[in-house]
Amino acid sequence: MNAPIVSLESPTQTPSAGQLLTTAKSGGCASSFCGLSSRAAKIDSATWEKIKDHPCFSEEAHHHFARMHVAVASACNIQCNYCNRKYDCTNESRPGVVSEKLTPEQALLKVIAVANEVPQLSVLGIAGPGDASYDWAKTRATFERVSREIPDIKLCISTNGLALPEHVDELAELNISHVTITINMVDPAVGQEIYPWIFYRHRRYTGMEASKILHERQMLGLEMLSERGILTKVNSVMIPGINDQHLIEVNKWVTERGAFLHNVMPLISDPTHGTRFGLNGQRGPNALELKALQDRLEGGVKLMRHCRQCRADAVGLLGTDRGQEFTLDQIPPDLGYNGGKRLAYREVVERIRDDQLVAQNQAMTTLASMSVRGSLRVAVATKGGGRINEHFGHAKEFQVYEASQTGITFVGHRKIEPYCRGGWGEEGTLDGIIAALKGIDIVLCARIGECPKKQLIEAGIRGIEVFGYEHIETAISALYASENGIDLSQAIA
Amino acid sequence: MSFKIIASQCTQCGACEFECPSGAIELRGDRYVIDPERCTECEGVYEAQQCASVCPVPKTCVPA
Question: Cβ separation of B50 and A202 shorter than 8 Å?
Fold first, then answer.
C-alpha cells in the first residue's frame, strides 16, 4: 500500500517558513476573526460540531478528513437517464460506478482495513451503487456492524428519496447524522425528461405520474429529516436544456424545507457510458456554465462547491481515490480494528486547523485593508491540509479560489490528467490541462518544471512555486496584494 | 408458469430477490436464479410480476 496522502509526520514539519508565514502568525489572536469564533459567526456551534469532520458537508473539513463508501446497496427503485446500471469499471470516477459489490460482512472488513490505514477517515457513507434507502436491509445491517466495531465513525447515506420516508425513524435511531438526497426537479414535466420509470409500492410507474410520486416522496423525506435535526444535502445534476434553469426553482423549494446544503453537479455524459443521455448526445455543462448557475443560486441554502462526484466505492480525501488499495483480495479475513493512526491524526489535526484558521483570518484582514477592486482567479495544487503541497506534474486536480477585496472563496475544482507519467511530462496532456484551466490567472504549486511553466505563460496563465508548502489563503492574499502593487509588510503594519 | 433471468444481462443488483413474494429467487454462485417450482408470476398477489417490474435491464427478467 502507498504512503498515506497526508502523513502523520507532515503536520509537524515546518513548511518552508517564509516571511509570509511569520507575518500570518504574528497576527496572533488580536483580531476579532480569531479562533473558532469566526466559524461560529457563520455557523452555530452545534452545527459546526456536526460538520467539522465531514468532508462532504464542510469545505473546510475536506482539506483534512476522508470518507469511504461501501458498495452494499446494489438494488435501485428508479431509472435515471444519466445512469447505466450495467456499467462496472475500475477506471471511471463518477457516482454509481463500483468495481466490487460487498455484503454487509465484507463491508465491515473493508471499513476496518481502511480505518487501520487511512488516518483521516471520519465518515462511512452508503451511496449505492443502487439506492441506500431502497436496499435498506443491507444498508442497515452494514451500519449496525460498523458502529459496533468503530463507534466514532460518522454514518451517512445518499438516496434518490423515493423510499426515504419509510426509513427516516430508523435513520435517526441508527444515529445517521447526514443524508444526501438527489433532487433534480420539483416539476414532473421536467422530471419525465430525466426519469423514464420508478418502482413504487409494487408497481412500475412511467411518465408524469412517476415523477409526481418521486417529487412528493423527496419533499416529504426532506421535511421529515429537517424535523429530526438530521443534516441534509441536496444533490442536483445540472443537465443543460433540461433542468439547468429549473434548478433555481429546486433551490427555492429545498431552502424552504430546511436543506443544509445544495450541491449542483455537472451531468457526466459520454456515449461510452451507455446511458440514455450519453447515447442521445445530451451534453454536460462546462466549468464556467456550472459556476454561473452556482453564482445565481447564492443567497439561498449554502452551496457545496467542492464535490468530486465520487464513485459508490470511493476511499480517501475527496480529490483522491484509494479504493484500489482496499479490494477484498488484499484484506486478511480476520483483520481486527486498530484505531491508533486515526487517534494520532485527530490529535494533530486540531492544531493544523487552528493554524490554518489563523492564516485564513490574517488573509481576510489583509484583503480588507486594501482599497483595490478586481478579482483574481487562482488554481491550487494540494494534497490536503490546506496547503500548497502538490507538484504541478503530479496533480490530478486543481482547487480553484477567487480572491477579491471581500475575501477568498473556494469556487470549485478542475479535474485533469496528471502531466507527469513515469517522470516525463507529456505534451498532449499539457494541452488538456491548459484547456481545463480556462479563466484561471495563476496556478500555485509546490514545484513546477520550466517547460510546462513556459507553455502556461503562452496560454496567459502563470505557474508559481515560490509559495510552495504555504497555507493556501496566506499565499493567495499575498499574491493579491502584489498583483495590486501593494507592499504587504506596509499593508499589514 | 414461471419467469427466468437472462444471466448474461443481469447486473446482480438483487432487487428481484427481495421483491419476490414467493421467495423463488436466490443467488447461486454469481447468478440470480428463479425456482420455477416456486414462481407464481405473482398471480393473485400483485398486478404485475415484481421481478420484471423492478429489473433495471430491459428484456432480462422474462417469461420462461
Answer: yes
Q: Cβ of B53 and A204 within 8 Å? A: yes
The beta strand positions in chain B, using DSSP E, are 3-5, 25-28, 31-34, 61-63
Residue A10 grid cell: 507532515
Q: Select from A86, A199, A203 the Cβ nearest to the Cβ of B11.
A: A86
Report how far residue A363's alpha carbon sits from residue A372's, in angstroms, rounded to the nearest whole number.
15
pLDDT per residue as tens digits for the range A425-480: 666 788 889 999 999 999 999 999 999 999 999 999 999 999 999 999 999 999 98
Q: Domains (ranges, CATH) in chain A?
A: 43-330 (3.20.20.70), 343-492 (3.30.420.130)
Q: Are residues B56 and A202, on separate chains, in Cβ contact within 8 Å?
A: no
Q: Give the separation between CA A290 and CA A305, rounded to whole angstroms.
A: 10
Question: What predicted TM-score, i.e. pTM, was given to this entire model?
Answer: 0.82
Cα gap A222→A252, rounded to integer Å = 13
Asked if A89 is an interface residue toward chain B (Cβ–Cβ < 8 A), one would say: no
Eight-state DSSP code of residue A14: P
- pLDDT confidence bin for A315, thresholds 50/70/90: confident
What domains are defined for chain B? Answer: 3-63 (3.30.70.20)
Chain A residues whose CB is inside 8 A of the B56 CB are 76, 79, 85
Write the residue in B11, B47, B53 that is nearest to A199 by C-beta: B53
Q: How far is CA A155 from CA A66, A140, A167, in A?
A: 13, 11, 15
Counting one residue from chain A and one from chain B, the pairs whose CB atoms sit within 8 A come to 48
CA distance A118 to A99: 20
Question: CB contact, 8 Å: A199 with chain B?
Answer: yes
